[in-house]
Amino acid sequence: MERMEIKLTVNGRKHTLYVSPDRTLLEVLREELNLIGTKKGCDDSNCGVCTVLMDGLAVKSCTILIPQANGHSITTIEGLEREDSLHPLQQSFIDHFAVQCGFCTPGMILTAKAILDENPMATEEDIREGLHGNICRCIGYKKVVESIEAVRDGEYKESCGEV
Amino acid sequence: MEGLIGKGEIRIDAYDKVTGKGLYASDYGNQFPNLAHMKALRSPYAHALIKKLDISKANALDGVMYIMTGHEPGLDWDQFPKASIIAKDETLWAGQIVALVCAETLEIAEKAVELIEVDFEKLPAVLDYYAAIDPNAASVIDPEYETRPLGFSDRPGDRASNRVSPNVVGSFKMHAGDVPAAVEEAEIIVEGEFWTGKKTASPLECANAICRYDSDGGITMWSNGAGVHGVIKQGICRILKIKESMVRIIQPYMGGSFGSRLNPYVEVITALMCLRTKKTVSFQFNREEVFTGAPSNWPCITKVKLGAKKDGTIIVNDYYLAEEIGACVNNTFFSGRLSSSGAVPVYRFPNLRMDTCAVATNTVPAAEYRGLGCPEGEFGIECLVNQLADELGMSPVEIRMKNIIDKGERDAFGELITSIGLKKCLQSVADAVQVEEMPEQDMGVWKKGRGCAVGGKQNTPLGRSEAEVWYNSDGSIQLFISCDENGMGATTALAQIAAHEFQVPISEVKVTKGDTAITPYDNYSASSRTTYNTGNAVILACEEAISKLKIEVARVYGLHPSKVEIKGRKAILVGSYVQEVDIPSLFAPTSMFTQGNWGLQKGTPVIGHGLFCPAPIHQWDENGLSDRVWNWFQYSAAAVEVAVNEETGQVKVLKIASSADTGNPINPKLVEGQIEGGVHMAIGFSINEEHVFDANGKIANANFSDYRLPTILDMPTNDNVHAFINPDPLPDGPYGAKGMAESITIPVGPAIAHAIYKAVGVRVTGYPMTAERILALINEKKAKEAAK
Amino acid sequence: MRFDKYFEPTTVEECCSILKEFGSDAKILAGGTDVVPRLKNKIWRPKAIVGISKLPDIDTIAVQKDHLVLGAGARLRKISLEKSLEKDYKVIMEAAGNVSSMQIRNVATIGGNACNASPSADAIQGLITMGAIAVITGPEGTREVAIEDFFTGPGTTVLNAGEFLLRFKVPAPKPGTGAIYKKFAIRGDTDISIVGVGCRLTLQKDGTIEEACISLAAVAPKPMRAIEAEKLLIGKKLTTELVEQVGEAAANSCSPITDQRATAEYRKEMIRVWTRHAVEEAEVRAKSKLNEN
Question: Which of B692, B768, C17, C249 lies at a CB distance of 3.0 to 4.6 Å from C260, suitable for a disulfide?
Answer without folding.
Answer: B692
